[in-house]
Amino acid sequence: MRAFPNMTGEKGMDLRDYFAAKAMPLAMKWVEHNYSQVLDGNDWMWDEKGDEEEDENDAGEIAAVAYLIADAMMAAREKNGGG
Predict the structure, then answer these.
(1) What angle do CA 13, 18, 23 make, to 5 degrees?
(2) How many CB atoms neighbour CB 10 within 10 A?
(3) Which of helix, strand or coil describes residue 9?
(4) What is the pLDDT of residue 61?
(5) Mean pLDDT over all residues of the chain?
(6) Would the N or C end of the chain have less CB density within 10 A of its end CB?
(7) 52-79 and 15-39 are packed helices; what angle lies between their axes, rounded to 10 degrees?
(8) What are the phi and psi torsion angles at 7 (to 5°)?
């Protein structure tokens, strides 16, 4: 399913990707909250150390949470007859 189909034949963005993008701010807050709990309030992401591997892991976790939310949105949409 596409989020923005149009009359020119372009298919548009995948609806799941659209939902994940919309969920990204919530996913960032959720991950930030969980890291703050573990790190006792210390900085958790993209700090001044410049550890690219750690930053990549943080970004991957945020993306994974965003897609979990998107998948839940897709399931709710199907359940409620929206798909």
Answers:
(1) 165
(2) 10
(3) coil
(4) 87
(5) 78
(6) C
(7) 130
(8) -80, -10
Residue type, 44: W
Q: Shortest CA distance to 45 belongs to which of 69, 65, 34, 66?
A: 34
The per-residue pLDDT for 54 is 63
More confident residue, 65 or 13: 65
The SS3 call for residue 54 is: helix
Structure token pair of residue 69: 């939310």
Residue 43: strand pairing partners: none
Decide: helix, strand or coil at residue 14: strand
C-beta of residue 70 within 8 angstroms of C-beta of residue 28: no
Most confident of 9-13, 48-52, 70-74: 70-74
Judged by phi (left if over 0) then psi (alpha if -120 to 50, else beta), residue 50 lies in: left
